[in-house]
Amino acid sequence: MILNEAIDEIIDNIQEVSSEIDSESIMQMLDMLIDAKNVFIIGLGRSGLVARAFAMRLMHLGISVYVVGETITPAINSDDCLLAISGSGETSFIISTAKTSKNRNAKIIAVTSYDDSTLGKLSDLIIHIKGRTKIDSEKDYIKRQINGRHQPLAPLGTLFEVSTLIFLEGVIAELMNKMGKTEADLKARHTVLE
């Protein structure tokens, strides 16, 4: 079934991302998140859903976190950190947010598939997540076949978005370990207003 092939394609990409993780960059990312007075998270579309899921877990860890665009989000300052998720690294609202953050001397972590993107160039740290984004598409069928690149079964940015979600869940596990937190600590901060 196509369903199984699509799932296998997604799992293969996640395993490739896992095998390419640079531990030094991860340690730097953890320090930036822990040391920031406030962490600001941004992503749009499906990447925005991933961003919100990560923000929730940071809150469960006791990290002061805000999702950019929400009405309660304060000004970003030099002792803060922006984590921006954009597969292409060229999403205009994310770039303008990163530029504002840079102008206010905040640290910027880019989670992207394109290190040389505008977002990547604005960032203090780039976390490379391999994935086909919606801007990747070889339209020439013959060229795709010759290069061994067949039409992917996971559409648009699915590989990037799902791989980023899984990666950031792994980051939460690393943060729990580094901060000495347990699942009980996270559960104590979980919402009770449901």
Notes on the structure:
The chain has 194 residues and is an alpha/beta fold. It is 51% helix and 12% strand. It has 8 helices and 5 strands, in the order ααβαββαβαβααα. Strands 2-1-3-4-5 form a 5-stranded parallel beta sheet, sandwiched between helices. α4 (92-103) links the parallel β3 (81-85) and β4. The longest helix has 22 residues, at 158-179. The radius of gyration is 17 Å and the shape is globular. The model has no long low-confidence stretch (mean pLDDT 90).
Give a quick precis of the structure.
The chain is built from eight helices and five strands, in the order H-H-E-H-E-E-H-E-H-E-H-H-H. The chain is an alpha/beta fold. A five-stranded parallel beta sheet has the order 2-1-3-4-5, with helices on both faces.
Notable characteristics:
about 190 residues; alpha/beta; five-stranded parallel sheet; 8 helices; about 50% helix; globular
